[in-house]
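TEACHING EXERCISE
Course module: macromolecular assemblies
Task: Read the component lines below, then compare them to the predicted structure of the full complex.
Student: A.B.
Group: 4
Components provided:
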Amino acid sequence: SEGVVSEQIRLNQIGYYPIFIKKAVVVGVVEATEFELIEAKSGKNVFSADLSEARKWELSGEEVRIADFTDFNEEGTYQLAIAGIGQSYPFEIGKHILQAPFLGSVKGLYYQRASMALDEKFAGKWHRAAGHPDDSVSFHPSSGRTDGFLVSPKGWYDAGDYGKYVLNASFPLGQFYTLYEEYPEAIIDGDLNIPESGNGRSDYLDELKYEMDWVLTMQDEDGGMFHKLTTKGFEGMVMPDKAVSTRYVIGKGTGSTLDFAAMAAQAYRVFQTSDQDYANTCLVASRKAYQWAKDNPDVAFKNPEDISTGEYGDDDFSDEFFWAASELFVSTGDQQYLDHLKEEQLDFEMKPGDGWRRYMRFLGMFSLLRNPENVPDELLQKIRSGILASADDLVSKALEQEYFQPIDDFQWGSNSDVLNAAMIMAHAYRINPDKKYLFGAQQAVDYILGNNAVGYSFLSGFGDKTPMFLHHRPSAADGIEESVPGLLSGGPNSRLQDASNGVVYPENVAPMKAWVDQEPSYASNEICLNWNAPLTYVLGFLEQESN
Ligand code: G3I
Ligand code: 9MR
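Instructor-supplied answer key:
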């Protein structure tokens, strides 16, 4: 209805399933003690209740009140209204309301495709020319190869840059495969409107295969994985077909090789019914990679002197070993992999910043839980109780914070930390269907879709107020006002590593507010594959489990 939209009211801008916890956050000065829920069309009051007492918080630096309308569960489109300050953006209460952002978060990957044009039929106004054929890529000396070229087309661009990184292709693919293994019907053929739609196989698998095809090309003859395929430095903010600097196959190391081994063993299971040959290719590649890592257990990648693109450097491979051995054990039943799992790798504490460095051990645990048949009971019990305890901690931490977010340290890609925590809650729910885990994951999604200290829905194109100036080269260069849709902004980052890149942050900005919708802000407003991946997982999980 007419009336001013108030930025003081924060909530999930998409909406809530009828069964969900429904809590909006009201910030700043409010005279009223009550709120009401009104029907968006008619303005008719359907519910009212008291606001909670005001409370001041440190992470956001805000004074907040909670408007709790959990008890209201009639389907419709509503706004929250508060006398003296205005109304919220309209949102829905209804079943399947997360389906659109869920599909959108996967369609976002299609927009990241290298080596092919995006046709208007599939890409709408974001159609564009092909870039980066990558069909004869030179080897950088750090790859260990001195002559010849690598044929390495396809794949998704990693982020706002046009690099392709094996480590950060494998980790998100593992998260995407996890959803498929748990909910294979979540996306079916035709759901995504991509070029492969109508071929009889799930659009989800078709989209994931576009990335998988590329990663497979990055395996050296001896089984080791090259680390990345990028230019020497980051290029300007131009469209793919204008970003034509020479690209190289760079480095080779244990981290990339183990992450690949793990997710390729998953791929073997995932592609088995639709393409047996492809599945077998993945398993052979996985075993070879794992063997290389066993023989070369300590090769940490560091950017060579002449290279300044993303490093994805890590020098502790115990999480990667755990993930790879778990997946290979599940796929093959081969005892040697089980013997490689080590007690000390069972660390259940999720710390912000774990991400692509450390989170993968959870993916291994999730796979063992899903495929318990040959797993020794003692190990299973440890994993079950560890995941439950970890989820309990995250849920109670979230309940104690202003936006019900499960983290209290905001680093580069903090939105992925929120969602990786939700992925643990989701798996706790699969072990023990206590609603507190489901609602914990839901409130993490509320945070991502608008119930947060900056009042944005962080998923481009989904919500009333979404990022318009992502650090994303196509979005910056395509001349179209709206960002490419379906891409998740990194989120608040209290370290402000991009402050010298022309980014303007508010003075003395609170950790949870350290996010700006500005194009140069790669430390807060870039997008990245491993941030979209847990969002896809959690949205898919909620959509499957909440109806
Ligand atoms: O974990 C430590 C924390 O303990 C410490 O307090 C803090 C102090 O600044 O640093 C934390 O580490 C940070 C880490 O992100 C957290 O995950 C590093 O400083 C920070 O430099 C690091 O940023 C990484 C960034 O690349 C720069 O290397 C991001 O994790 C990573 O996601 C990002 O990835 C880039 C690729 O390199 C290139 N493509 C885009 C992609 C997304 O921005
Ligand atoms: O665009 C780059 C982004 O993908 C990286 O995450 C980020 C940090 O490594 O760097 C961005 O590139 C910037 C570079 O580091 C410094 N000069 C400006 C570049 C574009 O903003």
